[in-house]
Structure formats: structure tokens, C-alpha cells
Write a structure and sequence with these properties.
The chain has about 650 residues and is an all-alpha fold. Helices cover about 70% and strands about 0% of the residues.
Length: about 650
């Protein structure tokens, strides 16, 4: 980035009011919608709030700056949807659910609810569950632990976001393709350039029309008549089963095509080489890998063989294969690529650390804290989470394993996930790392299933992407973090009141909140399957074999790239192993269109200058339609709950 860039404040009284508005007015609607239909209002909240406040500011004669719009765009979706206290209501349900009572701890033989610690939820026989209120002494410790754990993650995220922002934005200059969309949305809505507003408006109109067909018709038809009409399959066209399904040739494989236009348009922003290797990794994993695990390696994955059902479709095949086959391999793949990235980037990492240690002018102008402060915040936060974990669980769980996972794996996970979002726009999510750690530890207590130290990247990849967008909008970095802390305080406070209100109206789950009747029992059963050791058998040989395989493939790829000039992307390959072909194929198609077709149609200069505006406009149009459709359904289904 330019050394002379002047970063300006974005967290102002107006943006604080926008965040407060989102939590006060939109959060209760979002909570209700999630309980009733499982839907959310994140995208709609962002665009509706941004557009409304932008218009009010213009009418008042003081338009929002691009920096203020960036903060609004970044924070409103969080403020309008985050509801941590809903998880506490689920805990109340979990300790009393007949489903959890039907599972037994394999070591004591007792039903799971009898062993649940009171620091996670009040005992199953506590009157607080019938009172349906958080204002009770028995909720004090669970709430305190939840809040403390969350803000530990915030401190962890901030420290590593600063560190990786300097490494991947200042030193390596990764593209962070979707940061451009975030920035263009903010700039276009704030500055109203006639040229860009025209492109943005036309794109938004296209997004709205398509979203009406894809999301609006099914949502409204189901909400009003109870019968869903789908003009276009959601979220993908399933090509796994049926007369032309891929399973006819390759049993176990899954295949499909995403139907959301954004799945295709996103590819125009990602480097072409990256999309090629994402496609290769995805096909190798979910098509050929699934088939091989079902046939040639059936002895390693007997549960996958037992549970695979011909004709089941992409949803079922993805769910079962992800759990039964790919947990350990994905961990192995990630460790291998992490080592490749470290080997290739170690000089950049060292230079970045040295630069921060010396506090160069660039780092001081941008507001980067010193290396000592960042490392102290990172290490102290992680160790605090370790101390909290062992204070609650005890020292029967191997402390050395906790420290290795919390200090070592969390850093490695953050490093590689931030790298993947910097190169591809996708942040891979490595599933069930802590669950695998518990199983590998041999610990027989139930407590580690309900609390964990810091073990994952959490928000670091997305925050680093937002830092890139902050640069593009010339926003002061510290304002982004100040705004987030303010947002967190607001949504925690509002979530407490609104969740309490909905819980007091009627039990959750209940017919008043029908989605919870469907989803919460499934969630309770899944958690109980883990605790009872019925869902996953940890196999070190699979993890090691996957590590060796990926290390070998990437090693050969890097060598061939160096001597032949053929580009190679280990990060793109790794990302593909986590993303279904239904998404990587559209991404690749979009990349081909963006590289070879659209520049010829629109002109090279126009396309390069407006492609992010087009993607942002389509996203805005879709978000508005989804929000309006959900609101119409909510109004049509609104019922006054009588007290008798």
C-alpha cells in the first residue's frame, strides 16, 4: 500500500448510531426469524441500513464519508444478527431434552444430562428452566464464562489480525479478492459517483430480479400457502443421483452446480490460477476421494460404507462423508500446506516481524502496535483460555496437549486460513479439531465437550480481509476494532433483552418457534453422539497418510512450477478440498468469463474498473430481496400469543 496514504476516522457518532439502530430495530426481527424459520437478515440489514442512512445524510446536507460507510457496512450485519444468549436457551433445552437423556456416557453409564457441569448450564432439575429467565443466580457463572471466553477471542483476533495484516497486506501484498467488493460497496454508496452508481444500480436490479426467482418465490409461497414453489433449485442443482447422476459411474461421489449468481460472479475477482487448483482439489476430494474411500479404502472408513445410500442426494452424501471420511484428512492436508506456506514465506514472516519490532514509519502511520504488544496479547490471551479451561475441567486432561493445541495449532490455523482468504477469497474451516483432540487425549470426563481453550482462527481471516478493505477506503485501522468492540457490547446487551423477551412469551423450542422444533433436536442428538463416542473414531494413520500425500503433491507442484514456469497454488488446492464442486465449478466458470470473455464484451479498462462494483451491486440486490421476502412472511404469519 502507499506509504503516504492518509487514513481517516470511520467510527464516528453517526456510525455508532447506525450500529445501535441495527441492534435495536433489526436484531429482534432477526432473532425471531431464526427461531421461526431458521432464516437471517444479515445481508438485508447491511444494505437496507446503509442505503437508508446514506439517503438521510444526503438530505441533511452532510453525506456519509467512505470511511463511515465502510464501518457501517462492516458492522451492521453483526449488530443485526448476533444473538449469543440464544445459545444459552439451547443449553437449557439440552439438559432436559429426552434426546440427550437417551444417550449415556460410555465410561460411567449415566445419562449425559446428569453429568453436565453447572458452569455450563443449571442442573436439569433446577426451577430456572421453568421460569425461563436469565435473571437468576444459577445463570451467573455460565453467562460470565460465555462473555469472558468471547472477549478472550476478541483480544486474540485483534492481535493476530494486526500481525497477519502486516504480513499479508504490507509485505506479501495478497489480493484479498472480496475485500474489493466490501470497499467498492462503501465507496459507491458514500460518494455516489454517477458512473459507478449507474453500474451499481443496474447490477442491483439484475440481482433483485434473479433473487425474486431464486429466493423470493419459494419463501413467499411457503410462508403464505405452506407449499413451497421452486422455480430454480436451491442452493444447487443436484447432479449426484438420478438417471444422469455421477454416482452411477462413481458410487460415493457427489456433484452439483450452485444456482446463486454470486457463486459465479465471485470467480471474476479471484486469480485465475487459484480457481484452477481449487477446482482440482475439489474434484479430487469430493468426487474421486469419496469414491475411493467407499471402494478401495473401504476398510479404513467402514462407517462411510455402511451409511452410504444410493440415490440419497448431495446433501446427505456431503454430510456423511464430511464426518466419516474427511475430518482427519483435512487436518493432515492443512498441516502439510501450512508447512509449505511457512517454507516459502519464512523470509517474509521474519522481515515482517523485524519491521514491526523496529516499528517502521509505515507501521506507525497505519497504527500497527509494536511486535511486543501483539505477541504479549496473543500469548497471554491463549494462556488465559488454557487456565480457564483447566480451572473448570481440572488437570486430568493433559495440560501439554491443551497448550500445544491452543498455542501451536491456533496460530497455524489462523496463518493458513488467513492465507487462503487472501489468495482465494475463501476461508477454509477445519472441522472438529477440538473433538478429535478430546478423543486422542484418552480423557474420560465429559467436561471438555462443553468448553475449550482457543483452538481456531475465529474471525482473524475475515478481519484481515476487512483491514484490506479499510486500506482501500482509507479508513483508520484502529477505528475498525473500536467499532467492533462497541458492536459486541451492544449486541450482547440487546441479545440479553430480546432473547429473554421471546423466551418469556413461550418455551423454546415450541410450536410458537417452529424451526427450533426441527433443528434443536438434531443439534442435541449430534452433540450427544460426540459425547457418547458414537460419531467419529480418530485414526492417526489416516491423518498421517493424508499429511504425507498432500506434502508430496505440493512439493512436486512447487518444484515443477519453479523449473517449468507452470503456476501452482498449494493454497488453492487446499481450499478446494474443503469446498464442494457445486461451488468451485461456478467459481472457475466465473474466472474464465472474467479473464477471457467479459473484457472483450465491456472493454478491458471498463471491466477492470467496474467488476467489483458489479459484484457488489448484485449482492446488494439479492440482500434486499431476501430481507423483504422474509419480512413479508413474518408479517403474514404474525400471531398475538394470548396469556390463556
Amino acid at each position: 500500500m502507499s506509504q503516504n496514504m492518509e487514513l481517516k476516522p470511520g467510527f464516528t457518532l453517526r456510525t455508532a448510531l447506525a450500529i445501535l439502530f441495527a441492534s435495536l430495530m433489526i436484531l429482534p426481527v432477526s432473532i425471531y426469524l431464526s427461531l421461526v424459520s431458521g432464516g437471517g437478515l444479515a445481508s438485508a440489514a447491511i444494505y437496507i441500513t446503509a442505503i437508508l442512512l446514506s439517503e438521510f445524510a444526503i438530505l441533511a446536507g452532510s453525506p456519509l464519508t467512505r470511511q463511515e460507510m465502510f464501518i457501517i457496512y462492516s458492522m451492521v450485519g453483526i449488530a443485526a444478527t448476533a444473538s449469543p444468549f440464544t445459545t444459552l436457551v439451547f443449553r437449557s433445552y439440552f439438559v432436559r431434552s429426552p434426546i440427550t437423556w437417551s444417550f449415556k456416557d460410555p465410561f460411567t453409564g449415566k445419562p449425559i444430562p446428569e453429568l453436565i457441569p453447572t458452569w455450563w448450564a443449571p442442573r436439569y432439575d433446577s426451577p430456572v428452566h421453568e421460569l425461563r429467565t436469565f435473571i437468576h443466580p444459577e445463570w451467573a457463572i455460565p453467562i460470565a464464562i460465555m462473555v469472558a471466553s468471547y472477549f478472550m477471542y476478541v483480544a486474540y483476533d485483534i492481535s493476530l489480525t494486526y500481525l497477519f495484516s502486516y504480513l499479508y497486506i504490507e509485505v506479501e501484498k495478497l489480493p484479498f479478492p472480496f475485500a474489493e467488493v466490501q470497499a467498492e460497496m462503501s465507496i459507491t454508496l458514500a460518494e455516489r459517483s454517477p458512473d459507478k452508481m449507474k453500474v451499481f444500480t443496474i447490477s442491483a436490479l439484475i440481482g433483485m430480479i434473479y433473487a425474486v426467482l431464486l429466493y423470493g418465490v419459494p419463501t413467499l409461497s411457503y410462508g403464505i400457502t405452506g407449499q413451497q414453489v421452486q422455480l430454480i433449485p436451491i442452493p444447487w442443482l443436484d447432479l449426484t443421483s438420478g438417471p444422469f447422476g455421477i454416482e452411477n459411474a462413481l458410487p460415493g461421489a457427489l456433484f452439483g452446480l450452485a444456482t446463486d449468481i454470486l457463486a459465479y460472479l465471485g470467480g471474476v475477482l479471484i486469480p485465475f490460477t487459484t480457481t484452477v487448483y481449487m477446482l482440482i482439489g475439489s474434484i479430487a476430494t469430493w468426487v474421486f476421494g469419496n469414491h475411493i474411500a467407499l471402494t478401495w479404502l473401504a476398510n479404513l472408513f467402514p462407517q462411510w460404507v455402511e451409511e452410504w445410500i444410493p440415490g440419497a442426494g448431495i446433501n446427505y452424501i456431503y454430510q456423511r462423508s464430511a464426518i466419516r471420511v474427511w475430518i482427519a484428512p483435512q487436518i493432515g492436508f492443512t498441516i502439510a500446506v501450512s508447512l509449505i506456506v511457512l517454507a516459502k514465506s519464512y523470509r517474509n514472516i521474519i522481515n515482517a516481524l523485524k519491521s514491526l519490532a523496529k516499528m517502521t514509519r509505515a507501521s506507525s502511520v497505519r497504527g500497527y502496535p509494536s511486535l511486543k504488544i501483539l505477541l504479549a496479547a496473543y500469548i497471554s490471551t491463549v494462556m488465559l483460555s488454557v487456565i480457564l479451561f483447566h480451572a473448570l475441567v481440572g488437570f486430568g486432561f493433559p495440560i501439554w496437549l491443551t497448550i500445544i493445541v491452543a498455542l501451536g495449532w491456533s496460530f497455524l490455523d489462523s496463518l493458513i486460513r488467513t492465507r487462503t482468504i487472501g489468495e482465494t477469497g475463501y476461508s477454509i474451516s477445519i472441522p472438529y479439531v477440538w473433538e478429535a483432540t478430546i478423543l486422542a487425549s484418552g480423557y474420560q470426563g465429559i467436561e471438555p465437550w462443553f468448553i475449550a481453550p482457543i483452538v481456531s482462527a475465529a474471525a482473524v481471516p475475515y478481519w484481515t480481509q476487512s483491514v484490506k478493505a479499510a486500506y482501500l477506503t482509507e479508513t483508520r485501522l484502529s477505528d475498525f476494532f473500536k467499532a467492533f468492540i462497541f458492536t459486541a457490547v451492544i449486541f450482547y446487551t440487546m441479545s440479553f433483552f430480546y432473547t429473554s423477551f421471546f423466551w418469556s412469551i413461550a418455551p423454546i423450542p415450541s410450536s410458537v418457534y417452529p424451526y427450533t422444533l426441527i433443528s434443536w433436536p438434531v443439534q442435541a442428538a449430534t452433540t450427544s453422539l460426540w459425547i457418547s463416542r458414537q460419531i467419529f473414531a480418530f485414526k492417526p494413520e489416516v491423518l498421517v497418510g493424508s499429511f504425507v500425500l498432500m506434502l508430496g503433491v505440493c512439493g512436486v507442484g512447487e518444484v515443477l512450477s519453479k523449473f517449468t514456469g507452470i503456476p501452482f497454488s498449494a493454497v488453492g488446492l487446499l481450499t478446494g478440498t474443503f469446498v464442494l464442486p457445486a461451488s468451485t465449478i461456478p467459481t472457475f466458470i466465473g474466472a474464465v468469463l472474467g479473464k477471457y470473455i467479459f473484457p472483450k464484451i465491456f472493454g478491458e479498462e471498463f471491466w477492470k474498473g467496474h467488476r467489483a462494483v458489479i459484484v457488489a451491486g448484485v449482492a446488494a440486490g439479492e440482500g434486499v430481496v431476501i430481507g423483504l421476502s422474509a419480512a413479508i412472511v413474518m408479517i403474514s404469519k404474525a400471531t398475538w400469543i394470548l396469556p390463556f
